[in-house]
# Entry
Amino acid sequence: MKTASHKIAQELQESLEYIRRHTAQQPRTGLILGSGLGDFADTLQGSERIPTADIPHYPRSTVEGHKGYLVFGKVGKTPVLAVQGRTHYYEGHSIERVAYVVRLMALLGVDKLLVTNAAGGVNPRFRAGDLMVIEDQINFLFANPLIGAVVPPEPRFPDMFGVYHPPYVELIEQTALELKIPLRKGVLFVSSGPSYETAAEIKMIQRIGGDAVSMSTVPEVIVARARGIKVAGISCITNLATGLSSKPLSHEEVTEIAYQVKSQFQKLVREVILRMND
# Structure
């Protein structure tokens, strides 16, 4: 009888074998692209695209602005795997399945991960269109992708101190400074969604230390830490959170603002990836 951990390992192996039949590229850096930010994958050199819907056991991405591809290519000389269309807990996937791609990345040889997302600004000093380097996270999904069977080589109890690799936080700050790209720094609060937060919930998030709020990222980061992958993170502040904005929130606004800052976002991400691998 197969154990749960054996079943997951077998599924990962079948996914890996499918990918290997479609590309021989060997990525060392992973990049997960958030809502409205996926166009960066189209800038990779020598790219090869695999629809995630064709990969065995891979969860489907159903949200507008998430195309559903794994894109293999290069930034300069750095081999990269870009996730153009992440999956979310609110889509109905299990929390383990939401982070499935990070386990795949580890099997493909990825040892560095840059996560990005669209986020609401909770810090009253933030404005729509700001970019924020993530220095830590608060998990209010009330779920963890490591619950259940231990999947070797992941430990049962991974330490989460400095989960956003402090040298990478400094690297992103220094890179933004040299590129003259304004950059905030803060803590990312993540809840399940898909409804936006109430004004009372935003006040709570402010009081417990959140600077921006999102519905993604945390599951992938937890699995990356368990797999020994060093993580960096950038949020695009696409709107002010409920109670700080005078107009109703919408996904259309999120993608519109992300598009408006696309040039600066792509410039920063490209240079950060190059420097992470320097």
